[in-house]
Amino acid sequence: MIEIRHINPPALGEPPGYSQVVEARGGRTIYIAGQTSLDSNGELIGKNDFPAQAVQVFRNLSVALDAAQCTVAHVVKLNVYLRDMSNLAAYREARNRFLDQATPRAAPAVTLVEVSRLYGPDFMIEIDAIAVA
Question: What does R_g of the chain's alpha carbons equal in angstroms?
Fold first, then answer.
């Protein structure tokens, strides 16, 4: 049986929408490669449209989780790469819709960094994930 415990030590403060520490026991570990805004045909969704790209990235993460017989509730870690930190609010909006699919709401540990470029020149966001099931 899997147990996922979210820990937010008071000395680290309450994070906005994620957990400072996630402990997972039992089960399988699933590593999901960095997901971009490509659709199932390899076509870019949302050229120059960050919100559309973010929605597609989270859609792709959902597909990958489903393929491993998991849901967002199994996600313990997200690594987020943004080309422009000014898109942080739009990222959080898409992330929150994704995390809100779980009951109780999913709260993985998250690392978010701004990068100078990603795999494709039109990609504005990429996210990889770790899940435990």
Answer: 15
CA pair distance 124, 133, nearest whole angstrom: 30
According to the model, what pLDDT value does residue 1 have?
84
Nearest-5° angle of CA 5, CA 8, CA 13? Answer: 170
- In the prediction, which pLDDT does 114 show? 98
CA 69 to the chain's CA centroid: 17
Distances (CA, A) of 34 to 29, 44, 53: 16, 15, 13
Classify residue 128 as exposed, middle or buried by CB count within 10 Å of its CB (0-12, 13-18, 19+): middle
Q: Which domains does the chain have, with CATH numbers?
A: 28-132 (3.30.1330.40)
Triad 22, 114, 107: Cα angle to 5°:
20
Quick check: pTM over 0.90? Answer: yes
Q: Which residues of 23-35 are buried (b: 16+ CB within 10 A; e: fewer)?
A: ebeeeeebebebb
Distance of CA 34 to the CA centre of its chain: 9
